[in-house]
Automatic annotation (TrEMBL):
<feature type="signal peptide">
    <location>
        <begin position="1"/>
        <end position="31"/>
    </location>
</feature>
<dbReference type="InterPro" id="IPR006311">
    <property type="entry name" value="TAT_signal"/>
</dbReference>
<dbReference type="Pfam" id="PF13433">
    <property type="entry name" value="Peripla_BP_5"/>
</dbReference>
<dbReference type="InterPro" id="IPR017777">
    <property type="entry name" value="ABC_urea-bd_UrtA"/>
</dbReference>
<protein>
    <submittedName>
        <fullName>Urea ABC transporter substrate-binding protein</fullName>
    </submittedName>
</protein>
<keyword id="KW-0732">Signal</keyword>
<dbReference type="InterPro" id="IPR028082">
    <property type="entry name" value="Peripla_BP_I"/>
</dbReference>
Amino acid sequence: MSTTSLTLTRRAALTGLGAALALPAIRPAWAQGAPIKIGVLHSLSGTMAISETALRDTVLMMVEWANSKGGVLGRKLEAVVVDPASNWPLFAEKARELLQVHKVDVTFGCWTSVSRKSVLPVFEELKGLLFYPVQYEGEEESPNIFYTGAAPNQQAIPAVEYLMSKDGGEAKRIALLGTDYVYPRTTNRILRGFLNSKGITNADIMEEYTPFGHSDWQGIVARVKRFASEGKKTAIVSTINGDANVPFYRELGNQGIKAEDIPCVAFSVGEEELAGIDTKPLVGHLAAWNYFMSIKGAPNEEFVKLWQAYIKNPKRVTNDPMEATYTGFRMWMQAVQKAGTTAVPQVTPALIGQKLMAPCGYEEEMLPNHHLSKPVFIGEVQGDGQFNIVWKTPTAVKAENWSQFIPENANRKR
């Protein structure tokens, strides 16, 4: 897909959303000066398009919403969309294009950690600003990136603790299934250390990796069944990403793996991915996130209404990375207003301490380590593709981006 500058004007789609989201009665009068350019760096083709296209649309929605409010600092926002096409080196090229050619003020983008690792040196070299909205493995802290998804202590570890609890089935054996790249491998290294600390030995941990887009799950699912048949309660922890999830879940159903026998908790499957799957065989399987569409309360109701009005489809779902994108965008707007400029050196410190009552129903805060405090939820898949929340933290959890279960971090000041 070629680079496209998108000027968003569909204001009518946002009417009737209540006072908090209402449009001004007249078209806003823009201050003189060039538009504020918003980079959008998400895969619109390839294996990750199943997940990332909705994030592109979320950023476009927020640009439109901000413009309906009069923009930022009286200036209009303009989105610049590129397609890195699930090609990790191309992410770096497209990031450089956004910063050097289009001179964007801020970028929202990436899903996989390999794409984020690809663009990180570009943003640091060119002093850009990236908001990264997806859960990840931690072990990183960049002055040019704000991480609005979960760190391992805000998703992976609480999820495994739940599986080991009485309510979660008291699992004694864990099958770690992931896509073969940095996020699953590092997350599972952390989880192996955590499991070992809880008395689960390596003999009771199965670990398998598959390439992006993997489609033949018959053998791996059969091995999981054999692993689970050896006398101890077993659970699956999935860090499978992208469209490989569709045949994976289909194969779980084909081989009769039910949640009450071998529960599977996913870290990268939400409402958007389930929209393309027959969820009836998956009822009761789990996902761990910091947001679900089924959350009650005014902040989420406003977010869902905003999305469905923008996309002109009352059945389109929201999910966790979309909510993290929304939260990051709102915090960036607040920081720009505080700084009085879009200049990265001034906006970056202004972001620290920003707070927002997020759609998850909790107040989230941007911490000095460029990560958010976030609640943790465990949800069960329902027949309609939504999640019934079965467990949650009482308060937002502060992100620990350097895990105590990585030996090299033992002497790191956290």
